[in-house]
Amino acid sequence: MTTSLRCALVGTGAVAHLHARAVAAHPHARLVAVTNLHRTVADDFAAQWDVPAVYDDLDELLAAEHPDVVLICTPPGAHHGQTLQAFAAGAHVVVEKPPASSLDELDEMRAAAAAADRQLAVVFQQRTGTAAAHVRRLLQAGALGRPLIAVCQTLWYRDAAYFAVPWRGRWETEGGGTTLGHGIHQLDLLAFLLGDWAGVQGRLWRLDRQTQTEDASTATITFESGVVAQVVTSAVSPREVSSIRIDTQKATITVEHLYGHGHQNWAITPVPGLEREAAAWALPDHEERSDHEPLLRDVFDALLAGDRLPPTATDPARSFEIVAAIYASAAADGAVITPVDLATHPTHRSGFASPVSDMRAIRT
Ligand SMILES: NC(=O)c1ccc[n+]([C@@H]2O[C@H](COP(=O)([O-])OP(=O)(O)OC[C@H]3O[C@@H](n4cnc5c(N)ncnc54)[C@H](O)[C@@H]3O)[C@@H](O)[C@H]2O)c1
Predict the structure, then answer these.
(1) Which domains does the chain have, with CATH numbers?
(2) Distance between CA 236 and CA 256 in Å, rounded?
(3) pTM of this prediction exceeds 0.85
């Protein structure tokens, strides 16, 4: 058994710092090497996080270091190729969201993990934290009755400068717009809580930004459990919020936050008259916020113990498929897309580029 995980990181940009912090917080993991498209960016990062080795590219790094784990923090277009490289070199992979640019790519990444007998963990850190775990347990146990209707909002604000980064806003390099890049977090938490989906109807909108991809989307999702969810995702909303509301037969569950949630962000409001029963639904005393740190800790602990990945890091396809189905529905003029449609369609699995309704041209 490995007693300490030697981690390498590719893509030393913004999110990489959260990975470095999470590695530093783990007693049996360390960051041994980094690489970036631009050497100076990698050098600065290595100096900041005390990383002993910097390489010009991932091939060189893998050949020299044979890391146990590769943390992939590059833009989405690079995830697939770098994941396959890491598995070929015998490493486990932790890849940032969105895991790939298409369902086909994710399938190949999962197949490569199985072939190499390595694990593929995807960073959807909104699933972590003691409150999400608690609410999921209540829902799975049926303690709140049947979930009925849900509202899922990712109303964020990204200005023109944000989209000026060369890889953003373009199908080829970002893979999708705000649905894939931002909404996926809340959609992933929604699916973590509600389980498998049954149908998706969606539309893509370009409301204000100079992007090729959408800057907003709207969708209706039905789940196998019978829940109907209304989803709005936007990159043009000045008062930002990430929120989920689930109405069950016995209560309304809400979480409202921006990039991470603790207990104070959650509420479980019982149907009047059920207050006594509701006392048993209270959040636990021990609180851990959602974050990269608990996610990487649980992944590292599982790898060190030779266990399966924790539920917070597995099943990336579930929410990724919901996102894919929103794009597929937009491409099919708003038709309902089912899991069978996604599995069998000749092009839906190969990418997300879809028609975006451009509302900027409309003047009143
Ligand atoms: N989980 C989260 O909360 C969260 C938050 C932000 C970003 N992300 C995701 O993390 C990824 C990176 O986002 P970011 O905001 O850190 O981007 P970023 O642009 O700040 O950093 C990406 C870095 O990767 C480097 N890079 C690009 N292509 C490369 C290649 N082929 N090989 C090596 N290095 C390469 C760039 O030079 C840059 O330094 C994206 O998938 C994004 O969606 C996740």
Answers:
(1) 5-123 (3.40.50.720), 129-288+318-358 (3.30.360.10)
(2) 18
(3) yes
